[in-house]
Amino acid sequence: MTRKLLLLTLLPLYLWADAHLFVFHRFDDTRHPTTNTSTQTLRAEFEYLKKNNYKVISLERLYKAYKNGESIDDKWVVLTIDDSFKSFYKNGLPLFKEFNYPFTLFVYVQATVGNYGDYMSWEQIKEASKYGEIGFHSYAHPHLVSMSDEAIAKDSKKGMAIMEEKLGYKPKYYAYPYGEYNGRVRQQLETFNFDLIINQNAGAIDKASDPHDLDRTALTGANNIKVKLRTKTMPTTWINPKDWPKNGKITTLKATLPKEVKRIEYYISGYGWKSATVNEGKLTAKVDKKLKMHRTRIFLKSGNRQSSLMLVKP
Ligand SMILES: [Zn+2]
Predict the structure, then answer these.
(1) Cα of 79 to ligand 1 centre, how many Å?
(2) Residue 286 and residue 175 share a domain
(3) Are 187 and 297 within one domain?
(4) Residues 46 and 164 in one domain
(5) What is the 141 CA–ligand 1 centroid distance (Å)?
(6) Do residues 134 and 167 touch, judged by C-beta distance below 8 A?
(7) How many domains does the chain have?
(8) Cα–ligand 1 centroid distance for 231 (angstroms)
C-alpha cells in the first residue's frame, strides 16, 4: 500500500472520535475528592471544548437525532450532573451560564423533598432549569439491582409524580443511581417511556448506540477531557458474562466485536489489564476469576475503541 493510501485508511480513526456524554457530581467540594470537580478544572475543560470547536448540545437534541435517524456529530458533547448537589448550583452553574453550555441535571428526589443539607431545593432546581434540562435520578437513590420489579416501579412512580407536581412536567431522561443496572432493571424502567436512559460506563456514543443504554464518562479530578474525547465506540455483543454470574465467577470472557479488531486489552475490576487475541470478531478468553467487587466493571479496549459492561451483585 502506498503511503498516501495508508494515510487515507487511517484518517477516520484519528479525525473522528464519536460523540461523548460526561457526568459531573460535585463542584469545589473537597470533602469528596472522588466525585469532585474544581471550577478551575471545569473552566479549563470548557475552554478546551470551545477552542476545539466542540458543540455542547442538550439531551433533547441528542434524542431528536436518534428519533429521526440523523447521524451523530463527532463534535457533539453532552454534559450532565448527577444528584443535584448544592455545590452545582453555587459553584458549577455560574460557569455553565458563562459559557452558555446546556446541561441535564439528574435529580435525586428524596434528598430535595427531605431538605438534605447538601442538596438543591425545588426553587434552585427550577432556577437551574432556565439554563438546562432536568432529568430523573430515582426517588430514593437505591441499589436497583437488588430490588424487586415492584420496588423499582414504586420508586420511579413516586419520584416521577413528585417531579411532575413540583416542575409541571414528567422528566424524559433517566440516569441510574450509582450507574448500577442490568437487563431486568432496564426493562422495568423502560415501562416509564423515558426518551433516553443513561448509564455510567465510560465510553463514547454513535448512531448505532442504544438510546436506552447510553454510555457516559465521569469528569472528576484533574483535567483529562482531551484523552476522554479520543474514545471511540466499539460495538460489542456480550455473550459471557451478560449479568452477574450465578457462582460469582467468570470462567470464560466471550463477546462479539467488529471484525477488524484483532487484539484486545480487557480489564476486570480487581484484576487489572490483560490482553487476548480476537478471531474473526470473536473474543474467547479463559479468565477463571472469582469477582472481588460487588460492582465489577469489565472494559474492552482496542486502540481508541472501548466498550464496557457493569456487573452488579444482586
Ligand atoms: Zn447519584
Answers:
(1) 15
(2) no
(3) no
(4) yes
(5) 6
(6) yes
(7) 2
(8) 24
Ligand 1 centroid to residue 60 C-alpha, Å: 21
Confidence of residue 221 (pLDDT cuts 50, 70, 90): confident
Domain extent at residue 165: 3-232
Strand stretches in the chain, DSSP E: 20-24, 26-27, 36-37, 55-57, 76-82, 104-107, 133-136, 173-175, 196-198, 217-218, 232-233, 237-240, 249-256, 263-268, 272-279, 282-290, 295-302, 305-312
Same domain, 7 and 81: yes
Residue 65 sits in the same domain as residue 102? yes
DSSP classification of residue 148: -
* C-alpha 239 – ligand 1 centre gap (Å): 29
What is the CATH classification number for the domain harbouring 261? 2.60.40.10
Q: 111-154 pLDDT, tens per residue?
A: 999 999 999 999 999 999 999 999 999 999 999 999 999 999 99
> Rounded to the nearest whole angstrom, what is the distance from the C-alpha of residue 140 to the centroid of ligand 1?
10
Centroid of ligand 1 to alpha carbon of 253 (angstroms): 29
CA neighbor of 153 nearest in space, from 132, 135, 174: 174
Q: Are 78 and 60 spatial neighbours (Cβ–Cβ below 8 Å)?
A: no
Question: How far, in Å, from the CA of 14 to the mean position of ligand 1?
Answer: 33
pLDDT in tens, 264-277: 999 999 999 999 99
From the CA of 159, how far away is ligand 1's center (Å)? 14
Q: Is there a single domain that holds both residue 69 and residue 197?
A: yes
Report the separation in Å between the CA atom of 142 and the middle of ligand 1, taken as the mean of its atom positions: 9
User: How far does residue 6's CA lie from ligand 1's centre (Å)?
Assistant: 45
Residues 41 and 149 in one domain: yes
164 and 260: one domain? no
- pTM given for the model: 0.92
CATH of the domain at 26: 3.20.20.370
